[in-house]
Structures are given as C-alpha cells and as structure tokens.
Write a structure and sequence with these properties.
197 residues; alpha/beta; 8-stranded parallel beta sheet; 8 strands
C-alpha cells in the first residue's frame, strides 16, 4: 500500500514537513524521499509543460508514482502530455462532471472520483472512500480520504484497515487530501502501512 498526498507544494508545510530553509524547487525531491506517490492536482496538470513533467520524473526514483487529477476542461490534452512521465505515471483521477471516459486517455489506470457505482459505466475504476458504500467483489486500487489533523491512532488504523479490505490482494494508493493535507497524518499513515505490511 502506498500513501500519497494531494499535491506536494503546500505553503502550510513550510517549517513543518519541509525545513524552513528548503528551496521551493527542492520540495518534490524532498517529498519523494518520504512518500512513494503523489497526486498532481488538476490546475497543476493543466498548466504543466512536457519539459516540467520530464523534470518531475527526473527528481524522483523509478519506483515513484504520479497520479494525475485531470481537469474538467482539456483533460485529454493534459493526459496526453503526461506520457513523458513514463513508468512513473501511476494513472489518472477523473473528476465527477468530466465529459469523457477511459477511451480518451492514454494507456494507464484511470479512477473515477465520483460514486463507485458510476465508474463501470464510464469504463473507469472506482475510488474507495471511507464515507461511501463499497461494491462487493470490487478491488480498490485507489482510496481517497480527508482525515482531520488530530485523528487518533485507532482512527488511522481503522482507515487503513478499511482501505486494505477494499484493496484485496492487489496494490493500492491511499490519497490523503485536505487544504493542506495534514503532513503529520501522512507520516503516521505511512508508518502504520509499513507495519501492516
């Protein structure tokens, strides 16, 4: 199980997760040394050039994965540019309201961020969320949560066990979102996931 944050460049992390004197251009490499995956938010995905994407790939280990949230507008174009990420492209996150499906995307996993029961009709994989019902006999490759910064360890453990049960025997990425995602929770989830194996 991989733990990932929604984005890596959060001003609220400066002086906490990121050392106060860390140059902004080093943040991705610093983040990638602590976590194995990240979500590229839609606004960043829409504006990123092929050169920037190639630079991001060069800042991370071959095992690192970028999950790209596609913008509602021009999602297919943003997805096509992401091919430069190569093996580091972990897949696409398709938001509710997107007028296109998996046929419009390059060959990579794609998850529907809307209700799980709508995913199959769009040719997409469902995304597990702790506050939504999960279809039986469906394996989750992606989970999404927005835990509070003060969620106690038993709550974090329950969150991981819930995702692990939905994930089944396969691999998966649990995305921690928020404004910003709570860096302390990310670290605790990473540690608990490592303990769970």
């Amino acid at each position: 199980m991989r733990i990932a944050a929604y984005g890596w460049d959060h001003p609220g992390w400066e002086g906490g997760f990121y050392p106060a004197d860390l140059p902004e251009e080093w943040r991705l490499a610093y983040y990638a040394n602590a976590f194995p995956a990240v979500v590229v938010p839609a606004p960043l995905a829409l504006g990123a050039t092929g050169r920037e994407l190639a630079h991001w790939a060069g800042e991370t280990a071959p095992s690192f994965r970028f999950l790209v949230e596609l913008p509602l507008e021009a999602g297919g174009q943003a997805a096509a540019r992401c091919a430069v990420l190569g093996q580091r492209l972990g897949g696409f996150l398709v938001p509710p309201g997107a007028p296109w499906g998996v046929a419009d995307l390059p060959a990579a996993p794609a998850w529907w961020l809307g209700p799980a029961e709508e995913a199959a009709a769009r040719g997409l994989r469902p995304c597990w969320r702790p506050d939504r019902p999960w279809p039986a006999a469906t394996a989750a490759g992606l989970g999404w949560c927005e835990p509070p910064a003060d969620l106690p360890a038993p709550g974090l453990g329950a969150l991981l066990r819930g995702f692990a049960a939905a994930m089944g025997a396969g691999e998966g990425v649990l995305v921690v979102a928020g404004t910003p995602p709570p860096a302390g929770v990310l670290g605790q989830l990473r540690g608990l996931a490592e303990l769970m194996g």
